[in-house]
Write a structure and sequence with these properties.
74 residues, mainly alpha, 5% strand
Protein backbone atom coordinates (compact mmCIF):
# COMPACT_ATOMS: atom_id res chain seq x y z
CA UNK A 1 0.00 0.00 0.00
CA UNK A 2 2.97 2.32 0.46
CA UNK A 3 3.59 2.60 -3.26
CA UNK A 4 -0.08 3.08 -4.13
CA UNK A 5 -0.31 5.88 -1.58
CA UNK A 6 2.80 7.60 -2.95
CA UNK A 7 1.65 7.35 -6.56
CA UNK A 8 -1.85 8.46 -5.58
CA UNK A 9 -0.47 11.79 -4.36
CA UNK A 10 0.40 12.60 -7.97
CA UNK A 11 -3.25 12.43 -8.99
CA UNK A 12 -2.87 9.14 -10.87
CA UNK A 13 -5.52 6.57 -9.99
CA UNK A 14 -3.95 3.66 -8.11
CA UNK A 15 -4.80 0.16 -6.97
CA UNK A 16 -3.54 -1.77 -3.96
CA UNK A 17 -2.61 -5.45 -4.26
CA UNK A 18 -1.31 -8.21 -2.06
CA UNK A 19 -2.54 -9.83 1.14
CA UNK A 20 -5.90 -8.06 1.09
CA UNK A 21 -8.04 -10.79 2.61
CA UNK A 22 -10.57 -9.05 4.85
CA UNK A 23 -13.51 -6.79 4.03
CA UNK A 24 -12.54 -4.23 6.68
CA UNK A 25 -8.97 -4.14 5.41
CA UNK A 26 -10.09 -3.40 1.83
CA UNK A 27 -12.58 -0.79 3.05
CA UNK A 28 -9.94 0.93 5.20
CA UNK A 29 -7.57 1.17 2.22
CA UNK A 30 -10.23 2.89 0.12
CA UNK A 31 -11.65 5.09 2.90
CA UNK A 32 -8.21 6.32 3.99
CA UNK A 33 -7.25 7.26 0.44
CA UNK A 34 -4.29 4.88 0.30
CA UNK A 35 -5.60 3.63 -3.06
CA UNK A 36 -8.54 4.17 -5.39
CA UNK A 37 -9.28 0.45 -5.75
CA UNK A 38 -8.17 -2.87 -4.31
CA UNK A 39 -7.36 -6.01 -6.24
CA UNK A 40 -8.38 -9.20 -4.44
CA UNK A 41 -7.46 -11.92 -6.95
CA UNK A 42 -5.99 -14.48 -4.55
CA UNK A 43 -8.81 -14.01 -2.08
CA UNK A 44 -11.30 -14.60 -4.91
CA UNK A 45 -9.55 -17.90 -5.66
CA UNK A 46 -10.00 -18.91 -2.01
CA UNK A 47 -13.52 -17.51 -1.66
CA UNK A 48 -15.37 -16.71 -4.89
CA UNK A 49 -18.18 -15.18 -2.82
CA UNK A 50 -15.87 -12.68 -1.11
CA UNK A 51 -17.57 -9.59 -2.62
CA UNK A 52 -20.99 -10.69 -1.33
CA UNK A 53 -19.59 -11.61 2.10
CA UNK A 54 -17.62 -8.36 2.32
CA UNK A 55 -20.68 -6.28 1.47
CA UNK A 56 -22.65 -8.09 4.16
CA UNK A 57 -19.90 -7.63 6.78
CA UNK A 58 -19.64 -3.91 5.98
CA UNK A 59 -23.40 -3.39 6.05
CA UNK A 60 -23.94 -2.72 2.35
CA UNK A 61 -27.02 -4.02 0.55
CA UNK A 62 -26.11 -5.44 -2.85
CA UNK A 63 -28.18 -7.24 -5.45
CA UNK A 64 -27.40 -10.94 -5.42
CA UNK A 65 -27.47 -13.05 -8.58
CA UNK A 66 -30.96 -14.51 -9.00
CA UNK A 67 -29.70 -18.08 -8.66
CA UNK A 68 -28.19 -17.22 -5.23
CA UNK A 69 -31.25 -15.48 -3.75
CA UNK A 70 -32.38 -18.51 -1.74
CA UNK A 71 -29.00 -18.68 0.01
CA UNK A 72 -28.98 -15.00 0.99
CA UNK A 73 -28.22 -13.95 4.57
CA UNK A 74 -31.20 -12.58 6.45
Amino acid sequence: MEFAGAVGKTGILTGAVGLITEAKQADDIIQSGQADMVFIARELLRDPHFPLRAAHELGYEVKWPVQYERAKWQ
